[in-house]
Amino acid sequence: MSRSVEPPRVLNIEDLRRAAKRRLPRVVFDYVDGGAEDELTLRANCRAFQAVTFQPRCAVATPACDLRITVLDTPLSMPLILAPVGSSRLIYPRGEEAAARAAGAAGIAYALSTLSGCHLEDVAATSKAPVWYQLYLVGGRDCALSAIERAKAAGFSALVVTIDTAVAGMRERDLRNGVKELLSGNLWSMLPFVSQLLTKPRWLAGFIADGGLMKFPNVVVPGKGPMLYADVTAALEQSVVTWEDLKWIGQAWNGRIVIKGIHTSDDARRAVDAGASALVVSNHGGRQLDGVAPTLRILPEVVASVGDRIEILFDGGIRRGSDIIKALCLGARAVMVGRAYAYGLGAAGGLGVARAIEILRTDLVRTLKLLGCAYIAELDRSYVDVPTDWPVP
Ligand code: GLV
User: Is it the case that residue 272 has pLDDT exceeding 80?
Assistant: First the structure.
């Protein structure tokens, strides 16, 4: 393990965040760290975990805690899945491959974003565990159909359809850091913003050696080739996924579909009606519509409305294994983490991702022991107290 992410220097995800901040240019760090508008939802996602408290059973022996679960009928070593994180290749050279490899080594699933810099075939080949492909409709239907075919052929076992991105959220940090200018190709416009790249020579050397600004090799626009980085914001605006689209997507994929971006029990029921095998209660880590409720608060009502008909996954604000346990107690089958591992990727590539997974794994075991619960599958509402003003069914 690289010294930079070893204990005692790195004990928790916040330590990885600080290490990522040291290695990454501001524009890249803030892309990972930031959220939409006032970042109310981003902060609320994290704070919601503080409001839920544990009810441990003490003096209970739990010699070997079993973290294994199944998601979509596939065994995972623990209830953790690496969420799709766009532009991981900007965070670290061949970032998507590094993250998928670390997930595979830990026996957990990795979801590859459409907006990735590595070929989906290469990513699938690096992981020993299940890989899922996340779909945006950027580039249009034909482009999506060809990605779906490629993902099927490469062995991706589920298609994650993100439904909360009718347009990119207003990420003000990105704009202030000069994302538009840096992508403009106009040296004069770029000039005021390049110093943030030059002051991070380790990142810069890796970025240049990795081929410079990534394209999107899995978004191959017919007649044009891989989508350029600068084109993605406009492309997202033209690519809203609707419930109607889920019909042709389902036919083309002909396999397990996970619908990500469920904010309400109404949409959860639509996901069931659309034939999805799983849904993710997610507000995109507070990166899309600011001002929506934290996901942990939504989770119990979604579980109550459709929990017997579909597998319920969760993301948003997870920074510790104890957060994962709280989500599981409120009915999630497993959780996805985005920033928690992206900080590790930014700090030290695959080693940092492995360290993030290890931190969460050891947190899970310790928390289970302290709760007096030997099996992750036995967690339920009786282990937590939920604030009385939450909409708990
Ligand atoms: C992409 O999905 C992002 O949130 O940046």
Answer: yes
Q: Is 263 a catalytic residue?
A: no
DSSP state of 238: T
CA of 260 to the centre of ligand 1 (A): 12
Q: Of all protein residues, whose CA lies closest to atom 5 belonging to ligand 1?
A: 86
Q: Which amino acid is it at 9? A: R
- Is the pLDDT reported for residue 103 higher than 70? yes
> Nearest C-alpha to atom 4 of ligand 1 is from which residue?
287
From the CA of 58, how far away is ligand 1's center (Å)? 42
SS3 call for 51: helix
Instruction: Give the active site residue among 17, 256, 284, 355.
Output: 284
Using alpha carbons, select from 361, 359, 354 the residue that is nearest to residue 376. 361
Asked whether the beta carbons of 267 and 21 are under 8 A apart, the reply is no
Residues having CB within 6 Å of any atom of ligand 1: 86, 115, 284, 287
Domain 3-384, architecture per CATH: Alpha-Beta Barrel (3.20)
> CB of 71 within 8 A of CB of 313?
yes
What pTM was computed for the model? 0.98
Q: Is 94 exposed, middle or buried (0-12, 13-18, 19+ CB in 10 A)?
A: buried
**Which residue ranges make up each domain of the chain?**
3-384
In order of 24, 107, 115, 229, the CA distances from 92 in angstroms are 9, 22, 15, 16
